[in-house]
Amino acid sequence: MSDTTITLIFLAFAIISFMLEKIPLALTATIVAIGLNVTGVLDTSSTFAGYVNSNVILCIGMFVVGEALFQTGMANKIGSLVTRFAKSERQLIVAIMVIVGIMSGFLSNTGTAAVLIPVVCGIADESGYSRSRLLMPLVMAAALGGNLSIIGAPGNLMGINAMTELGIESGFFEYLPIGGPMLICGILYFALIGYRLLPDGTTPGQAVVAAKKDDYSDVPAWKQNMSLIVLVLVILAMIFEDYIGISIQISACLGAIVLVLTGVITEKQALQSIDLKTVLLFGGSLALASALDSTGAGTLIANGIVSLLGDDPNPIIILLAIFIVTCALTNFMSNTATTALMVPIAVSLAQSLGADARAVIIATVIAGSCAYATPIGMPANTMVVGLGNYKFKDYVKAGLPLIGISFVICMVLLPILFPFYP
pLDDT tens across 84-93, in order? Predict the structure, then answer.
């Protein structure tokens, strides 16, 4: 059996396993990586290169920096501060989406949603508004905000890693030209139309099913302030990477070190904040991406897509195909896993057409974040199913129009800002 065939078999296994989730996502990625090594498709060095990838180190550093904001209660304080000024339900929805969207751009979007869900539940209970009308905008803002920077979501780093391997320079706000307008339009959508599509009435069991609200009153103010200061300094260091000569990975690690040394968080809290599932999924997926490239399996898939699109496909048609396929997958399987699977295929597609890979990579990453239409598309969606008493159709009703808006923004801005043939 050829290496190409073996790689395609493991790709099929990964897709099916990611969709069914009978096997944990990280374990699936690990099985694929080890399987590719045992079958001789990848050597040992190539198999484990992804696990020590510089972007994995960046993830680990930012896990710790973000955890300090959560552990000290500063994230809650920021959320409560912003929502305090909302005088109506619609204003509250907008305020929640603004703060969650911005925070998700610089912290884990799932972590941001997790820490603010209890805050919003408390606001809903105290104000008399239905949780079901506040929680869905929150989780969708988390997904939208993750596209503001390269650290907003793990899938973003997979796209950046692909660009780096192709020798394409990228910046901290690589996705912002597309992600920024998407977030703004998403907020406007819920403010003008989307709020009408949210489930109406009081959430059944709202008084019984209570979200746990942590008490941070005993946390010293200096720790809260230090967590915010370090986060801001790390972000600034990443933005001005070229000027200060320190890579973004080192900046993240320095921030994590300062927070532990100063006692803002303990070593145990720092270690517990590192999401090994993401690290293992990232490393295993990069091994699969390497095999797709080295065996020519990615090119084979890309050529198959190209042949379906015609002999001389229009760039817009290509973007359309990438967006639809990736978006469809991400609503039924992990958005991180979807991005990991689709990025190497998108790169092969661009190379087969002699096009600029940046455009297809960004399109793939953005489409991979559009998991708005199902409760299983991303962890944050699942977190609020019970608290909001949502049904599957509630996500479809509110999420599909948002996917349409994201799609239009991408189709308009991508060819202008990131042309296929610059």
Answer: 667 788 888 9
